[in-house]
Input
Amino acid sequence: MTYKKHISQSNDLLDRFSSAFAGIKSHSNLPSGTTPFIWAIAVLIVVIFSAFYFNVRANNETILRTNLMKSTAKVADNIEMRMRGISANMARMIEKMELDGINSAVVNKYGREIISSSPEVILLRVIEPSGKGLESVVNPRLGRSDLRQYNYLDYPQVVRDAIGDAFLSNRVSYSSFWFTPGDISSPSVVIIYPFAIGEKTYALLARLSLNKLLEVSTPQSLLSDYEFSFLHGTKEIAGRAAYNPPDDYTIPSYVRAADPLPPSIQLYGCNVLESPMIFASPLIYWLGALMLFLLLSLFFLNREMRRNQSDLERALKELELRRSIEDSMNLALVITDLDNKIVYTNGQTEEITGYSEEELLGKTPPYPFWGDSSELPSQLLKDRPHEEPGKPYRFDLTIRCRNDETLEALMLAMPFYSAYNEHIGWIYMIQDNTVEAQSMNLTNDSIASYERLLNSVLSCISAVMQKPTGSMLGIHNNHYTEQLGNTADGHLEISKAFKEPFDPQGNRQGEVWVDSLGRWFSVAEARVTLPGGSHVTLQSALDITKRKINEQEFEEQTSKMENSSRLITLGEMASTITHEINQPLTAITAYANTALEVIDRAPEVNKTQVLEIYRKIANQAARIDKIIKNIRAFAKRRPTTLECVSLNSVFSDTMELGRLIEKKYAGVHVVYELPAVVPDVICDPVQIMQILMNLIRNAAEAILEHGSKDKTITVSAKVGAKDVELSVGDHGPGISDTMKASLFTPFFSTKKNGLGLGLSTCQTIAESHNSRLRVRDNEGGGTVFFFDLKICFTKDSENKKQN
Ligand code: ADP
Output
C-alpha cells in the first residue's frame, strides 16, 4: 500500500523533472544577456554604412558638378563661337556692299547665305542711323515678310539702345533681349554692325532667336544628361531648364556668363535627373541591402534571445518552486545523467546522508553514500529499458552517512525521461528505513489524520524529531506556521524557555516567557523516545502574552486599590480610635491638671519633681489629642464640591490664615504675587485653602528648621490660556531627588513629630481638581510646590471680564 503511494508520487516527480529539464535544455543553446552587445553591433553597422554612403555621395556630387560645369562651358563656348561666326559673315557682307553698293541683290545673296548657315538668325537688315530699314532678308523658316519696313521708333528700347551705341562707338554692338508678343522666335537679341560708304554711315542688323541659338549651340550628346536655359536674373527666358537655386542639392545647377551676349543674359545648366547623386553607385545599393539584412538578422536574433531568457527565467523559477516542494518531502531525491553523474539532489538528501548538494553534484559512482554491496540500479535497468516506463525498481540499500554511520534505506530507482520521452538520466528516491525514521513517519502519519482537527485549535501544535544530525520539523498546524514559521526553530525556542524538566512520563507544562520571541506561551509538551534513542517532542503552545499583560496591569491596579483602601481603613479606624480614647483622654488631662493644682498647694511634696512628671503627662495627652485630631480631619475629608468661584476671595481668606502662621513661626514672611485681574476658577475653595495653608506651614517649618536667612514664602498665581498655576515657594533647605520620589506617599515625614499626611492629602485634593501637585527646585535654592486650577469660562464670567 505504502509503496503504491510512492510509485504514484514518483510518476508525478518524473513528469515535473523531465519538463523542467527539457525546458532548460532546449533554451540553453543561445547565450543570454547579450542584448546590449547586439544593439552595439547594429549601431556600428549603421554608422559604418552612413559614413560610407556620405563619402560616396560627396564624391559623386563633386564629379557631377564638375561635369555640369564643363558641359555648360561647352555650350557657352559654342554660343560665343556661333555669334562671332555670324559677326564675321556680316563683315564679309558689309565688304561686298562697300564695293557694290547697298542693293537688294547683294543683300539677298549674302543674307541668305548667313541665314542658311546660322538658322538662329531670323532677319538681316541694312539700316540708316535713323533706324530706317533699306534692305532686309528674312529667315524663310518664319514665313514672314512684314518685317521689311521699320522706323527707328518701331524698334524696342533695347534695340534702339544697341543701334545708338553702335553708331556712336562705330563698333559692333549686341542688344539685350526682348519679347515680341505672338512671335515664335521670341525672345530675340540683335547684333548691330556699323559701316560707312563714302560719307554716309549705315549698319547691318542681325536679329537672333535666343531659343534657336541655344538649340544649335547645345551638342546632342549632352541632351540626355543636361538641360540649358538663358536666364534673366533667376527667370528663364529661353531654353528648357527650369531654374533651380544652386543651394538646392536635389538637382545640381550651374550659372555662367554667355559672352558676347550682354551680362543681363546668363547661361544656366542643370542635370536632367532629380537627385542623381543618391545611390549613384551600385555599390551603395548592395551595401544598403547588406546593412538591412544584417539589421534584420540582429533584430530577430535579439528577439529570440529575449524570449529564451524569459523562458529560462520562468523555468528556473518553476524549478525553484519545485525544489522547495521536493525539499519538504520525506524522500531523498538524487538524479543522474546517462553517465551516472549526479545532476540534482533535494534537501532531504542531506538530511538522510549528511552530504550537501555541492558535495554530491558532478559525482560519478561509487557515490560516497552508496553501500558497498549494492550495484547501481541503472546497470540493472539498462537491460530492460522501456519495459514498463515509470515503474520504479525497488531494493534495500545501506547508506553510508557522512559521519560514517550507516543506516538502512529503501531505494526506488527508475530511468528519467524528458518531456519528449527521451531517456536522459536516472532518478533515485531514498527513504530512511531505520526504525526511528519509520516511527517518525508513523507519528507523522497518525498526526496527519488529525491535521484538520489540529488546525482548528488556537495553539501552535508541532512535532519535532531530534536526531544527531539536527532537528527536523514534522507535523505542525497552520497556527504554528503563521506564528513561528516553517522551521523547528520556534518549537525549540519555546522548549528552551522551560525551566522544569520532563516528568518520568515524558510530559511537562507551564507558562513560559520566550525571550527571543518576546512573548508568553502556555505550553504543554510530550516527549516520546524512539527505539534508536532519538526523541520526538509534541508541543502545544498558546500565545498568552495579552493575558499576561492584562494580569500584570490587574496586579498593579490591585496594589493601588490596596493602598487607597488602607487609607479608607485608616479613616474608619481614626473615628473609632477617637471615639474610644477621647473620653479617657479628657479625664487624664483633667486629673493631671487637678493633681497639679493639689500638689502645688501642699508644701511638703517635692514640687519640682512632681510638677515635671505631671507636665509630661499633660504634654503627652495633648500630643495624643493632636494626633487624633489630625487623623480625624484626614478621615473625615468631605467630598469635593467643585464650583465657579472668585480666586480673589480664596486668596483673601488664605491671607488671614497666613498672618496666623507668620505669628506662630516668628520671622517668616508670606508674600503674595498676584496679577491685577484674577479669573474665576473651578474649585472647592475650602480645599484649595487647605492645600495653600499646608504648603505655607510646611515651608515655614522648613525655613525655621534649616535656619535660612531668607525667610520669605511666596504665594503666586500665574494665569495661562486655560488654567491658573498656583504655587508656594520658599528658600529653605530644598528637597533631594530621592526624597521627591516618596514625598507624596502617605506617612512620609522627616520631622520628629510629623505625621506625613499633609502632602498626600494635598495631592488627593489636587487630583480631585483634575490636576497634580508637583514640586520643583526654587531659583536660588529652596522648593516650589505648584498645581493648576481650570479657569471657569461661564457666560457669567465672560460678562464679568467684559465689564
Ligand atoms: P509632615 O509635614 O507631617 O512631615 P508632609 O506630608 O506635609 O508631612 O511633608 C512630608 C515631608 O516633606 C516633610 O517631612 C518634609 O521633610 C518634606 N517637606 C514638605 N515641605 C517641604 C518644604 N517646603 N521644604 C523642604 N521639605 C519639605
Summary: Residues 1-14, 20-30, 797-803 have pLDDT under 50 and may be disordered.
